[in-house]
Design goal:
156 residues; 4 helices; 0% strand; membrane; transmembrane; transmembrane helix
């Protein structure tokens, strides 16, 4: 017998025994029988709660009562409250933001427009970006609030 025919015979045996059930002793199972999944899963039927029958139509003509048709239109719609106003910035902070974005913006526009840039203009744009960044970081501050107390705990 050749090695190829041995392999073919092994494959035929594997294919022939594919659908055979393995006979195992319960001691061979790695988990207890109580944790085996039942053959057919049990189904839970949940009935929706019964709604009481509606009484007669209310005869109150109150504008505070919502119209059911209007409720259907607004269902699922959330309108958030208006955001709080932005904090007021002082002049040095405004200048730092302008320098932070203005320097790279000038370089980008000049590059896209193929403007000839002098060395001092390049230096000024890069210095403005770096200076604006440093100014904002320095002004950021890491002071604790005045009402934080002695324990350095969470402040809500």
């Amino acid at each position: 017998m050749t090695p190829q025919s041995d392999e073919d015979e092994v494959w035929r045996q594997i294919v022939a025994s594919f659908n055979d059930t393995a006979e195992r002793d319960s001691a061979d199972q790695p988990w207890p029988d109580s944790e085996n999944v039942p053959a057919e899963p049990t189904r839970r039927v949940v009935k929706p709660p019964e709604e009481p029958e509606p009484d007669e139509d209310p005869e109150i003509d109150d504008p505070e009562i919502d119209d059911p048709e209007k409720d259907d239109e607004n269902e699922g719609h959330f309108e958030p409250p208006p955001p709080p106003p932005l904090p007021k910035l002082d002049l040095p902070t405004k200048l730092a933001w302008v320098a932070l974005f203005g320097g790279p913006a000038y370089l980008l526009v000049a590059a896209m427009a193929s403007w000839h840039m002098e060395g001092w203009a390049l230096f000024t744009a890069v210095a403005a970006f770096i200076g604006g960044f440093v100014a904002l970081v320095v002004r950021m501050g890491d002071d604790r609030p005045n009402d934080s107390g002695w324990d350095d705990g969470a402040v809500l």
